[in-house]
Every structure is written in C-alpha cells, then in structure tokens.
Amino acid sequence: MDMPGKLAAIVDEFASAPRDVVLEMLLEFADAVRPLPASFDGHEGMEQVPECQTPFFLKAVVTPTDQVELHFDCPPEAPTTRAFAGILSEGLEGATAAEVLAVPTDLYHRMGLATAISPLRVRGGTAVLTRLQRQVREAASAQDA
C-alpha cells in the first residue's frame, strides 16, 4: 500500500523544490498544527518523543471507523520540529490505520530534508513518525482483540 495521496503530494512537492526554498516550505507547515483538545491538558495520555531536542508530545487515536486522529504538541519556538507535526497532520488527515502504517520510515529523506536540515532534526522527525506508527499499530490491535 502506498502512503495517502495528500502526504504523497507533500513529499513530491518537497522533493522537487529547489534546496533554497525547502526550509521556507518546511516552516509553513509549523502553522498546520492544531491546538490540543482540553482532554490532553498537561499532556495527559500523550507520549513524549525524547529524540527531539525540544519537548514534543504526540497521541494517535484510531476511531471505531478506522480513521486515525493525530494530536501533537510542540512549542512555537521550535518551528522545524512543529513542521514535522504539521506535515503529518496535513498529510495524514482522514487516513486509515493501514495508510498510516504504510508511510515509509525514510519519509523525510524522500522529501529531501536531509540536505536542508541537520541529521539530528531528521532523526527527531523520524522518531516522531516511528512512535506515531507504533501507537497506531497498538490501537488497531486493541480494537481487533
């Protein structure tokens, strides 16, 4: 299974963009992170991603209709890290558990970000995706049980 169409379009857009524009494009996604619902006050029920240099929390919920709801929290002072969350939020909106699990773990390399940002930041973004997919896998398995 391929990654969802919205995410594939974002990946293609980044991969074909000139290097000098990639960082600007990335930062535009920092604003795509929705505010957390009140139920996550104080990051209740969220998982921290320690590989990120800044405090980054996430929670993936698989609904009874098999759609994945994503919740991220990262400070505005960390726009590059917030951009990872924005890309995932926008690209995976409305995706099923299977579609989220089909996202390749080298997503950020495919986007060409390894040439625009530090390897440490790419590793943080990859950790976010890996933890997100683990949460989706666990939630989907719990529903199947």
Automatic annotation (TrEMBL):
PANTHER family: SUFE-LIKE PROTEIN 2, CHLOROPLASTIC (PTHR43597:SF5), SULFUR ACCEPTOR PROTEIN CSDE (PTHR43597). Belongs to the SufE family. It comes from Dactylosporangium maewongense. Residues 13-135 form the Fe-S metabolism associated domain. InterPro entries: Fe-S_metab-assoc_dom. This is SufE family protein. The lineage of its organism: Bacteria, Bacillati, Actinomycetota, Actinomycetes, Micromonosporales.
